[in-house]
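## retry 2 of 3
previous attempt timed out at serialization; input unchanged, resubmitting
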Amino acid sequence: MTDEERAARSHAIYIRANERAVTRWLTKRVTTQTRQNLRETATPPVTPAQ
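## retry succeeded, writing output
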């Protein structure tokens, strides 16, 4: 394997790992946002049972 092939392979691995991290971050962010929106629009306000 030449140096170029090795570089290309490690670059591809890096990009794939980076995409996975971004996807996970976005999912977490969207989930948090959705929960906040649901909480704000919930009517009547949900009060925990006492």
